[in-house]
Write a structure and sequence with these properties.
Elements lengths: L1 E5 L5 E7 L4 E4 L6 H10 L5 E5 L11 E7 L11 E3 L13 E4 L3
Parallel strand pairs: 3-5
Antiparallel strand pairs: 1-2, 2-3, 2-7, 4-7, 5-6
Length: 104
Amino acid sequence: TLRLVAGQHQCEGRVEMYSGSEWGTVCDDAWDLPDAKVVCRQLGCGEATAARGEAFFGPGTGTILMDNLKCKGMETTLQNCSHIPSDVHNCDHFEDAGVICSLS
């Protein structure tokens, strides 16, 4: 599952994913608009208007679950995008990714 946290409405915020037992975050390395498009589509939040990095919506907690995402923008879920394994990442929570989608 996927959610957006700390935004002004349900369709903007820090990207968080649920991994079996905890919520974790996505690193902003290589984070761009095609990645944000997948998040907005997956959440039913319309089009992506911005991909934010550097913990724009504040730092998260827990495990950093994805790094170096390389979505083409047409994937149905973030998990379908190319990325490096969570145990190989080189990120900290000051690099958490966020999105702003068109629907509020």
